[in-house]
Design brief:
Elements: H1 15-25, E1 28-31, H2 37-46, H3 63-68, H4 70-75, E2 81-85, E3 88-96, H5 99-109, H6 111-117, H7 131-140, H8 147-150, E4 155-161, H9 170-184, E5 189-194, H10 199-208, E6 211-216, E7 219-225, H11 226-231
Parallel strand pairs: 4-5
Antiparallel strand pairs: 1-2, 2-3, 3-4, 5-7, 6-7
């Protein structure tokens, strides 16, 4: 899994009131389709600054999506959901069932092509590096999830919503749906990484039931036992 997504959730739990607001807005949660691929990049960039718009931070607007979004649409599409309203796709959950296998597949089928496009920056990342160089360095030195995290929590996810879908309980609804899906696929647990300073995201995950596992460098690792979570929720049925 890549390191924490730069646009992890700015979502708040609103319960039944939020569910009604979503219904009224006509938002549909559905499985990812190949035609949604460009939307993954668009949303990833628009939420790539700790939930804010990162468009002005990159010279190459595709770089952040190459690291955090694109590989899921190509290599793990069956484990992705999108949220769509009348204006189009405006949110997603992207994930993988088996993180070590997914990371091996990235090394085989995703990173090599990008390494030909983006030369490796010299040295190790520094605070004064532009984000383009940091993402290019990540392409050549992809993050590998520690075994102590992936063994008990083998699946992982990224969730991002555009501002117009935030604050209505949609993040929780999408999480319910995705966890029901990944549990049915046989996963015993899910992990994710978030920046320790991303207080709003941490509040969302704690309220949902995620457990903080450890803080390692720039990453706060959280885990969720799928069977325990599903026993206390009523998951949404898979979309059509």
């Amino acid at each position: 899994m890549p390191p924490p997504s730069p646009g992890l959730a700015n979502h708040r739990r609103r319960g039944r009131q939020g569910a009604r607001a979503i219904s009224d807005a006509g938002v549909k949660i559905r499985p990812y389709r190949e035609a949604d691929f460009d939307d993954l990049y668009r949303i990833c960039l628009a939420t790539g600054d700790s939930g804010g718009d990162a468009t002005g931070l990159y010279a190459d607007p595709k770089l952040v999506g190459h690291v955090y979004a694109g590989p899921y649409g190509r290599l793990s599409p069956e484990h992705c959901l999108v949220a769509e309203d009348a204006q189009g796709v405006a949110g997603y959950i992207l994930g993988a069932l088996d993180t070590p296998k997914f990371e091996a597949l990235l090394e085989e089928a995703w990173w090599p092509g990008l390494r030909r496009l983006y030369p490796e920056p010299a040295g190790k990342p520094r605070r004064d590096w532009p984000l383009d160089d940091i993402r290019a360095w990540q392409i050549h030195h992809p993050f590998m999830t520690p075994e102590r995290i992936a063994a008990p929590f083998p699946s992982h996810l990224h969730i991002d919503l555009l501002p117009r879908l935030q604050g209505h309980g949609l993040g929780r609804s999408m999480m319910d749906r995705w966890l029901a899906h990944i549990g049915a696929a046989g996963s015993p647990g899910v992990h994710l990484g978030v920046g320790p300073a991303n207080a709003r995201a941490l509040r969302f995950y704690r309220a949902y039931g995620w457990r903080e596992l450890e803080i390692s460098g720039p990453t706060a690792w959280l885990g969720l036992t799928v069977s325990a979570q599903l026993s206390g929720t009523t998951p949404h049925q898979p979309g059509r």
